[in-house]
Amino acid sequence: FLWDSPNASPDTLAAFRQELRRLGYVEGQNLVIELRWSEGKPERMRDLAEELARLPVDLIVAPTSVYTAAAMAATGTIPIVFLAHADPLRTGHVASLANPGGNVTGVSMMMTETNVKSLELLKEAIPRLARVALLFDPATPSHLPGVDAAVAAGPRLQLTIQPVPASSASAFDEAFAGISRGRAEAVLVLLTPIFIAGARPLAELGMKYRLPTVHGHKDNVTAGGFMSYSPDRPDLWRRGAGYVDSILRGALPGNLAVQQPTKFELVINLKTTKALGLMVPQSLLARADEVIE
Questions:
Q1: Which whole number is the average pLDDT over 147-166?
Q2: Residue 27 carries which DSSP code?
Q3: What whole-number percentage of the chain has pLDDT above 90?
Q4: Please, is 183 exposed, middle or buried when counting C-beta atoms within 10 Å of its C-beta (0-12, 13-18, 19+)?
């Protein structure tokens, strides 16, 4: 199991383990999970993936696109299961959703599509909005198709999209300073482990520059971001455990179709909304799955 840290989305990891237990797997009896944590250091992923491949393990769980890429670089034979991949097709990690081929399969978050939906919700929340910065990590495989889709959606939404790269937490300050100089009025933060781990500083920078931020992860909104729109992540990870079960019982990953999310969550931080002086339409608040006060 290759992931950022035990503190990154602990509810999703708990859901994954609970589903494995429901399927009959008991750690220490008929299952051993080799946990490897990158601890917010993307440069460690490749080494950790290679370590797991050398053991060797029977299967590697690599939840998102960055971990999947590291695992794929380490092995072309050990099955790899992703649990919340933003865009497995456009990154080239699978040949098709129906027939992934190779040694990789799992559950997609459809983040390329939900990035566009996030822009639509942001425009609904702030109708006067005209310019949105898009914070992305060039090292995250799924971010390039995400950027392309958001930029392409801009004219339809009467928005100018300003892509801004940031590859580490140390780049956040400079990125937001550039966003402010570019006169963006809000920020769409794409989903990647370093942006989840940096939820607090990103929220603080949003407040410092008076910029509402919209995210692909609820934790960023809990930390003080403005809004998030994303699939129900614990549900995705539970479904991912089913792939682990099928493969350990003999199924070939390349023959198992990639599943897509069916449940989505809209979360709005009302405290942040008020601090930024925004008047979010009541119709949007009423549709929110959670309003943080």
A1: 96
A2: B
A3: 85
A4: exposed
